[in-house]
Specification:
There is one protein chain. The chain is 81% helix and 0% strand. The relative contact order is 0.15.
C-alpha cells in the first residue's frame, strides 16, 4: 500500500528505509533483552543502550525526511505516529534492561517474566514482517491478528504475576520499586507493539 502513496520521490524511499532500520534495531535490542533475562548476563545491557542510541538516530532520520516533504501531507501524521510508537517501545526495552540490572528475578515470577520476553521478541519480529508486507502492498491482517493474540497472552501472564507479587517480601523500598518498574516496562512493550501494528493496519486499509 505504501507504494500507492509514493510519488516517485527518493525521499519517500529513504524514509521507508530509515523506518525499517528503526524496526530492525528494535528487534535486535529486544532479542538481546530476551537473552539478558533468560541467561542473567547483565553485562549485555550495554549492547541494548548502544542499539537504542542507534535507533534514536534512525527515528530522527525518518522523521526529518517526512517533515522535509516525503509523502502526501495527509499521510504524514499517521506515519509519524507509527514511528513514535516504535520509539516508545524502544524506550521500554531500554528501561527494562536498566531496571533488570538493579533487581534479581524472584523464583515465583521468573518463568512468567522469561515467557513474556520471548512473546515480546516474537511480536517485534511479526511487526517487522508486517511493515515489509505493507511496503510491498500485501495484506497484513494475519500479522495484526497474531500480534493481538500474543498481546493477550502477555496480559494473562501479567495478571498472574500481579496475583503473586503482592505477597512477596520486600527487603527495602527501592528494591520493591525497581521490581515494580521492571514489570511495568516489561509488560508495556506488548501494548505499544499492538498499537503500532494497529496504526500500520489503519494506514494500509485507508487507501485501498
Amino acid at each position: 500500500m505504501f507504494k500507492k502513496w509514493m510519488r516517485g520521490d527518493r525521499k519517500e524511499e529513504a524514509a521507508l528505509t530509515a523506518m525499517h532500520e528503526h524496526l530492525r534495531l528494535l528487534c535486535s535490542a529486544n532479542g538481546v533483552l530476551a537473552d539478558l533475562i533468560h541467561q542473567g548476563e547483565k553485562s549485555r545491557a550495554e549492547t541494548i543502550y548502544d542499539l537504542e542510541r542507534e535507533g534514536d538516530m534512525a527515528r530522527r532520520h525518518a522523521l526529518s525526511i517526512i517533515f522535509e516533504g516525503a509523502f502526501l501531507p495527509y499521510i504524514r501524521p499517521n506515519l509519524c505516529r507509527f514511528v513514535e510508537l516504535v520509539d516508545q517501545a524502544f524506550d521500554t526495552v531500554e528501561d527494562t534492561a536498566r531496571y533488570f540490572e538493579r533487581i534479581n528475578l524472584h523464583d515465583s515470577t521468573a518463568e512468567e517474566c522469561r515467557t513474556i520476553t520471548s512473546l515480546n521478541k516474537e511480536m517485534c519480529e511479526i511487526l517487522s514482517i508486517a511493515f515489509q508486507r505493507a511496503v510491498q502492498g500485501q495484506d497484513i491482517r494475519e500479522q495484526v491478528l497474531a500480534i493481538r493474540i500474543l498481546e493477550k497472552r502477555v496480559d494473562d501472564l501479567k495478571a498472574e504475576i500481579y496475583q503473586k507479587i503482592h505477597s512477596l517480601p520486600v527487603s527495602e523500598f527501592w528494591q520493591g520499586k525497581f521490581y515494580a518498574d521492571f514489570l511495568e516496562s516489561l509488560t508495556t512493550f506488548s501494548d505499544l507493539i499492538e498499537d503500532a501494528s494497529d496504526a500500520l493496519y489503519v494506514l494500509t486499509v485507508s487507501f485501498r
